[in-house]
Amino acid sequence: MHAFRRMKIAGIFLALLLILSGCSSNAAPATSSTKVDESKQAQASEQQAAATIKDVASTTVVPGQKLRISYIDVGQGDSILIQIPNGKNVLIDAGNNGDANTITSYLKKQSVSKLDIVIATHPHEDHIGSMNTVINTFDIGQVIMPKKDSTTQTYKALITAIQNKGLKITEAKAGLKLDLGPEVNALLIAPNSVSYEDVNNYSAVLKLSYGTNTFLFEGDAQEQSENEMINAGFNLKADVLKVGHHGSNTSSSSAFLAKVQPKFAVISVGKGNSYGHPAKVTIDHLTNIGAKVFRTDISGTIVAESDGTNITINAIATEVQPRAPTPAVSAAPAPVAAVVTAPAPTPVTSAVVTPSPAPKQTNQDVTVFITKTGKKYHIDGCRSLSKSKIPISLSEAQSKGYTPCSICNPPQ
Ligand SMILES: [Zn+2]
Ligand SMILES: [Zn+2]
Questions:
Q1: Integer Cα distance of 352 and 334 in angstroms
Q2: CA of residue 220 to ligand 1 center, whole Å
Q3: What is the per-residue pLDDT across 261-297, written as a single tens digit (0 to 9) for each?
Q4: What does the pLDDT look like over 236-250, one tens digit per residue?
């Protein structure tokens, strides 16, 4: 410790000497002051340095390389797989206790063997329910979770799994930069406080960029945490928002949504849940600011793909903006994929493009996919389509006796 500090001080001294000697030849005073600032920064603790970062910068994209985000349908809960073009994988949350098989088999079908980072946003069962199984099943790099204990068996099982694997826990807090390589930038922007009354507010909130596309994952963060993110000065603007707390009315405040301005909003929520999630007011808020809303209870697993500029979502938009001010936005649900181009030429609504804007689109006209031999129909991206993938209209698929796949939950 002492030796380390001495080395640091010696290093700073050396840096100063180098700067001073540099000054004598050509450096202007401004340059030397910048350099001194840099060494001062090195002196500052890692946390303080990280706290100065208020946004994720855009990244350089290798053409043809896609970022893939799966909002896995785990009913009333969260589980999100992020696959980075460099081969690294992140899992945010792991659903309920009963979702272990759904999650592990989905990950295996995506050829995931290692999760470089797992984030347990907060210790509620619908987020950490199957995290112990995930940790036992896959090679795990880093575990990130907030400093908040719980007395539940689910939490104890998670801690046991972490300990048995010899893993350490990195504390989730605003300003923590995630190391996932130069392809993406990833930053935690919450929690901003050390203690909360509502456990949901401990939620680790991640902002991620790939190329110029940005993604925000809110966990169950409530209005209090949303206000803290605003007050801390983070740039909250994001193309895709994983809506807080399953779309409840205690999250997604108008002030927060005004900062995020999502083009797409994903709500991870269970069909017929007893909480009444998502709240109608939340959906109205989101659609009123021009976001296309996607729900796992309607679309099943939702997959968003980004090439660094465009985002494609292969699910049916479940609500559209009622005002529909531009002809580009059809009054009917968008078929299969919605595409956005960033940076948007004009605000929000006109950036949303429906690929085939047939005037009287209904669910019956949506394109689904069948295989050469199977009897099920699927949405684009379903793992069952790995061998063959034949596009077919939903109505035709149904008339030919195909039934919906239980894994990807295509429209019915
Ligand atoms: Zn939850
Ligand atoms: Zn929660």
A1: 10
A2: 5
A3: 999 999 999 999 999 999 999 999 999 999 999 999 9
A4: 999 999 999 999 999
Amino acid of residue 386: S
Q: What is the mean pLDDT of residues 338-360?
A: 38
pLDDT (tens digit per residue) in 246-270: 999 999 999 999 999 999 999 999 9
The three-state secondary structure class of 363 is: helix
Spell out which residues have Cβ within 5 A of ligand 1, the ion: 126, 220
Per-residue pLDDT, averaged over 381-392, amounts to 78
Helices (H), 197-275: 223-231, 254-260
Amino acid 321 reads Q
Pairwise CA distance, residues 55 & 46, whole Å: 17
Cα 229 to middle of ligand 2, angstroms: 18
Which of 311, 312, 315 is CA-nearest to residue 335?
315
Contact residues for 296 (Cβ-Cβ < 8 A; gap 6+): 71, 72, 73, 74, 75, 266, 267, 268, 269, 302
Query: What residue ranges in 184-341 does DSSP mark as E strands?
Result: 184-190, 205-210, 213-217, 240-242, 264-267, 292-295, 302-306, 310-314, 337-341
Rounded to whole angstroms, the maximal C-alpha distance in the chain is: 84
State in Å: Cα 173 to ligand 2 middle.
17
| Ligand 2 ion: residues within 5 Å (CB) | 124, 200, 220
Question: Would you give the end-to-end CA distance of the chain in angstroms?
Answer: 63
CA of 226 to the centre of ligand 1 (A): 16
Report residue 67 CA to chain centroid gap: 11
Q: Measure 188 CA to ligand 2 centroid, in angstroms.
A: 18
